[in-house]
Amino acid sequence: MSFKQHFFHLSTAAAVLFNLTFPSQMVWSAPPNSADVQSFIPAKWKILEKVQGDLNADGLTDLALIIESTDPKNIVANENLGSNQLNTNPRQLLVLLKKSKGYQLASSNSSLPTEGDVESPCLEDPMGEGETLSIQKGLLKISFHYWLSCGSWYVTNTSYTFRYQNQKFKLIGFDSDDFHRASGDITERSINFLTGKVKKTSGANEFAESTLPEKVEWSKLKNKYSINLEQIKFNEHIEFE
Question: What residue ranges do the domains of the chain occupy?
Answer without folding.
Answer: 3-231
